Structure formats: structure tokens, C-alpha cells
Amino acid sequence: MGKVLSALLVVVALVAAGLYAGYVQVEPDEKAIVLRLGRFNRSLEPGPAFFIPFIEKIERARVTIEREEFGYRAAADESSDEERPEERRMLTGDTNLVDVGFAVVWRITDLSEYRLRVKDVPGLIQSNAQAVMRAVVAGQTIDEILTTAKGPTETQTRQQMQAALDTYRAGVTIDAVELRRVLPPEEVREAFRDVTSAEQEKSRLILEAQAYAESVVPVAKGEAEAILNHARSYRERRVLASRGQADRFNSLLVEYQKAPGVTRERLYLETLEEILPGMEKIIIDSKHADRVLPYLPITPGQRVERVK
User: Fold this and answer.
1) Which residues contact 144 (CB under 8 A, 6 or more apart)?
2) CB distance 102 to 180 below 8 Å
3) Which of 161, 217, 247, 290 is most buried per CB count within 10 Å?
4) Distance (Å, rounded) from C-alpha 240 to C-alpha 165?
5) For all residues of the chain together, what is the average pLDDT?
6) Burial 228-257 (b: 16+ CB within 10 A, else e)
7) Quick one: 51 and 111 in the same domain?
8) Same-domain pairing of 79 and 149
9) For the segment 29-46, what is each residue's pLDDT rounded down to a tens digit?
10) CB 103 within 8 A of CB 133
11) CA angle 226, 228, 230 (to 5 degrees)
12) How far is CA 41 from CA 49, 55, 116, in A?
């Protein structure tokens, strides 16, 4: 009986030791996998877990945001960065040199692929990032990479890097690509500043010209429209006056055909009224003018007309 009890105690002790040896606590910021005889068996969720000692092995890694820098190394004490010119010198699509410093932010998403598929994932990320960035920069002109292409360059580089790493099944996700500095080489930086200043001056002059045009053109259009309206009005008045004169002539022609003498005399008198306005006129018939004492005007402005 004592031997049985002793054996039982030994078994219990061995089981307890095995449980203790096979216990693991996976932290919330960790990923863990179980390797059975060197092969991937399963992934472990955060919290307590067990594995078989001597047969299974636990691989753990903290899931933290990693950052790889290219062209510079940020100083830990926030002093001046360490420059890496051999990493940042690149060639643009228009065969100009440009210094591009950037950073890649990444994290582990699949620990089994990260540990078992690729031997050196950080090294793969470094070589892949430099190759992709150089290819993206080579597809742009130096003016684009220095001015408007920052956002598209970051997005395109991140997408191409992720596609390549997914092909390798590296088990990581590229969260961001950040362009830290994009500058012309030091040897020609002053010349590029002059070019930039000239382009800014050009833009300023163009804006001033556009503002002047916007202030002058509406005034000119208004004046032109006023002249056109005046011309249209003058044309309408002349046309209406001509039509009125033509209608008057036609009506006079009808009356003249009916009574030529009377109409002729009426027209003569009306014409005198028009060409001698405001003057007192005395008309003497020529038949009687020789028989009476000639009329002498005694009021200034009077005029005597002889009717034949």
C-alpha cells in the first residue's frame, strides 16, 4: 500500500511539474505561436495557455510599431540627426539627383510567417524600401518630387512595398511611409532656391495680371455694351425717321396728284416756316405790289416776300 501511494505521489508530482513547465502567459501586446518538433502547430491568443514541454516550443514577440529610417538616423536625445547621404541620393525621371530621406513604419501581423517564412524580415524591409522608393522617384521629375508629389510618393511606395512583402509572406504590415526631407543635392541647392524664387515671382505676376484683367475686362465689356446699345438706338431712330419721311412723302404725293397748285403753295409756305423761324413775314401778291406804295418794314426782323 505504501508503495502504491508513493508511486501515485510521484505521478502527481510529475504531472504538476509538467503543467508548471508547460504553462505560459501571453501578454496583450504579444503574439505567440507553438512549434511542435520544430514545425508550426498553432497560434496562441493573449492570456494563459499550455504546451507540451520537450515536444513543443513557444515563440513570442511583442507587437510594437517599428520604424526604419533611410537617409538619416534620428538621434535618441533629439539632437541633430545622423546623416546617411549614401542612402538618400536618388535619380529622378528627368535625370536629376535629389536627396530623399524617409521612414517606414511597420508592425508584425502574422508571427508564424514572420518567424518561419523569412530569415531576416527587418533586412528585407530595408532593402525593399530603398528599391521601391528609388523606382517611384525615378518615375517623377525633380519639380514634382520637390513640390506636389509628396503625398502620392508616400502612398505609392507603401502600396508597392506591401505587395512585395505579401509575395514573400513576411507577416508584416506597412502602416506608413513618411518623406522626412526631399532636397536637391547640396552642391546645387542654392541654384534650386533661385529657381524656386523665380517660379514664385512668376506665379505672383500671373496672379497680379489675372487680377488686373478681372478688373479691366468687365469695365471694357460694359463700355462696349453701352456703345452697342447707343448704336442700336441710333439705328432704330434713323430707320423710324426714314420710314416716317417716306410715308409723309407718299402722302404728299397723293395730295399733290389731287391738287398740284394748292399743295405746292402749302409746301412753299411750310418750308418758309421751317427756314425762317421766329420772324414776322408779310406776303404781298405781285399783281398788287406795283399799284400800291411799296411796303417798308419798320420793325427789325421783318421780311417781305413777293409771291408771283
Assistant:
1) none
2) yes
3) 161
4) 87
5) 77
6) eeeeeeeeeeeeeeeeeeeeeeeeeeeebe
7) no
8) yes
9) 677 767 777 667 666 777
10) no
11) 70
12) 14, 11, 12
pLDDT at 132: 94
Residue 131: predicted pLDDT: 93
Range of the domain at 40: 2-62
Instruction: Enter the C-alpha cell of residue 247.
Output: 410715308
Using pLDDT thresholds of 50, 70 and 90, give the confidence band for residue 157: very high
Average pLDDT over residues 201-224: 87
Four-residue CA torsion sign, 233, 236, 242, 245: negative
Cell 505672383 locates to 204
Quick one: pLDDT at residue 81? 66
With 0-12 / 13-18 / 19 or more C-beta atoms within 10 angstroms meaning exposed / middle / buried, residue 56 is middle
Which of the listed residues 148, 164, 184 is the one where a domain comes to its end?
184
The pLDDT score that the predictor gives to residue 158 is 94
Last residue of a domain, one of 62, 79, 106: 62
Q: Is the pTM of this model over 0.90?
A: no
Distance, CA of 48 to CA of 25 (rounded, Å): 4
What percent of the chain has pLDDT above 90?
A: 16
